[in-house]
Amino acid sequence: MGSVGVQIVCVALGVLGLIGAIVCCAVPRWKVSSFTGSNIVTAQSSQDGLWTSCVVQSTGQQQCKNYDSLLVLPSDLQAARALTIISCMISCLSILILFCGADFTTCVENEDAKPKISLVAGVGLLLAGLLVIIPVSWSAHIVVRDFNSQLVPAAQKKELGACIFVGWGAGALLLLAGGLICCFSRSKSGSSGGTAKYYSNGASAPNKNYV
Question: CA end-to-end span of the chain, whole Å?
Answer without folding.
Answer: 48
